[in-house]
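Re: beginner question about structure tokens

> Can someone show what the tokenized structure looks like for a real chain? I only ever see the sequence side.

Sure, here's an example I had lying around. Input first:
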Amino acid sequence: MNTPHVVVVMGVAGTGKTTIGPLLAARFGVPYAEGDDFHPPANIAKMSAGTPLTDDDRWPWLDAIGDWAHGRAGLGGVVSCSALKRSYRDRLRAAAPGVVFVHLTGDRALIEDRMSHRQGHFMPTALLDSQFATLQPLEPDEAGVAVEVTGSPEEIAGRAATALDALSEPTP
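And the corresponding structure tokens:
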């Protein structure tokens, strides 16, 4: 990318945000922040118990991520955040207007399979249906790209970087 954007790697649980985010950050030479680290302990406890978060649960979390993104404005950075609803992305943009989104997309069966093989993560596969039900894909007026999560992490990160480069190129 020609300018140091702050990139939010978004998508439902299990799409690889925590894997792809650091790869993108390394490609762009900017810091990576793990979105889950911004959750208050009460949110992690709810999700660990299989209880979906409410919007009221998410606002402080989104505000913390937005503050981080705002602090990286003009410097660049990559942060993972599910950002499933337009209202969540609007809240992030309100804090950090220049953010761009990489929406990791994939088939539900593939994502469920990946989730079932990861260890040590608090998000159970039981919450995947609620994640897909909540998901509102990027709209045409939102700065961002959708990237399919098939292939290796390096291939996915490469497609994301290429799509972001194309997004930041001036239109003729």
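Each token stands for a local structural state, so reading them left to right follows the chain. Strands lie at 6-10, 32-33, 77-80, 100-105, 144-148.
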